[in-house]
Design brief:
GO molecular function: sigma factor antagonist activity
Keywords: Cell membrane, Membrane, Transmembrane, Transmembrane helix
Largest sheet: 4 strands, antiparallel
Pfam families: RskA_C (PF10099)
Membrane topology: Single-pass membrane protein
Distance between the termini: 32 Å
Number of helices: 8
Number of domains: 2
Radius of gyration: 26 Å
Shape: elongated
GO biological process, one term: regulation of translation
Structural class: alpha+beta
C-alpha cells in the first residue's frame, strides 16, 4: 500500500493494486486513511521556529527521486565516497552542523518516511469502523442495548459485514444464515474476524448460530440472533 501511494510499483504491480482497490471498498477506505494520516502529520509540523535553507525543498525532492530510482547505487556511493566534499545527510553523522540537522528533523523527512511514520504509529482501525466509514454504509447493533453481541454493517452495493464481539469457543465456529421462507441457507462460517457477504436483497433476515468447526448443513444450536438488515 505504501509503495502504491508513492508511485513506486511497476506497471504490473500497479494494475494489480488498482484492481484490488476497485473490488474492495474497505481497501479504498484504508488507502484514503493512510493519505489523510499523512496530511494530518504534515499539517502538524511547526516550521515557524526552524531555519530552513532556501534550497531545502529542491534538495529534498532530488533526494527522494534519487532514492526511488537507484537505491542500490546509494549503498555503493556511501561506502566509497571520498572524504572531501559535502557529508551525506545521515542521522548518525557528527560532521553536520546542528543548524542543518534542525531543519532535517521536521522538514527533511522524505514522503516515504513521513507516510511510514503515520502508518506505523497510528492505532489500527477495527474492521467494523472501517466498513462503517464507507459512504452510504448503515451500521446497526446486534442484540439489546443492555447486551450488544456485535454489529452488522450494510454497504450500498448490498454486501453485509457481520461481526460479533466475542470469538467462538475453542473447537466451535460462528455460521451465518440467510432466512428464506422460514428456511436457513448458509452464507459461510467465521470467527473473530467477522464475515463479509455477497450482495443481499434489502430487508433480508440474517441469523448466526454456533456450530462445529467447518459448519453444518443446518443449524444445530439456537441462533444467537435473527435480524433484518
Amino acid at each position: 500500500m505504501l509503495a502504491y501511494a508513492l508511485g513506486q510499483l511497476d506497471p504490473v504491480e500497479t494494475a494489480q493494486m488498482e484492481a484490488a482497490l476497485q473490488a474492495d471498498p474497505a481497501l479504498q477506505a484504508e488507502l484514503q486513511q493512510h493519505l489523510d494520516a499523512l496530511a494530518t502529520l504534515l499539517d502538524e509540523l511547526d516550521l515557524s521556529t526552524v531555519e530552513v535553507p532556501a534550497d531545502a525543498e529542491e534538495r529534498l525532492l532530488a533526494r527522494v527521486r534519487a532514492e526511488g530510482a537507484a537505491p542500490s547505487l546509494q549503498t555503493e556511493t556511501a561506502s566509497s565516497a571520498p572524504a572531501a566534499g559535502p557529508a551525506p545527510l545521515e542521522s548518525g553523522s557528527n560532521a553536520l552542523p546542528v543548524r542543518k540537522k534542525a531543519w532535517w528533523i521536521p522538514a527533511g523527512l522524505s514522503l516515504a518516511a513521513a507516510l511510514a511514520l503515520a502508518f506505523f504509529l497510528r492505532p489500527a482501525e477495527d474492521p467494523v469502523s472501517r466498513y462503517a466509514r464507507l459512504p452510504g454504509a448503515v451500521a446497526q447493533p446486534i442484540g439489546t442495548p443492555e447486551e450488544q453481541l456485535g454489529t452488522i454493517v450494510r454497504l450500498t452495493d448490498g454486501r453485509v459485514y457481520v461481526h460479533l464481539k466475542r470469538p467462538p469457543a475453542d473447537g466451535r465456529t460462528y455460521q451465518l444464515w440467510q432466512i428464506k421462507d422460514g428456511q436457513p441457507a448458509s452464507l459461510g462460517v467465521f470467527s473473530g474476524d467477522g464475515l463479509l457477504t455477497e450482495g443481499l436483497p434489502q430487508g433480508v433476515t440474517l441469523a448466526v448460530s454456533v456450530e462445529p468447526l467447518g459448519g453444518s448443513p443446518q443449524p444445530t444450536t439456537q441462533p444467537l440472533f435473527a435480524q433484518r438488515v
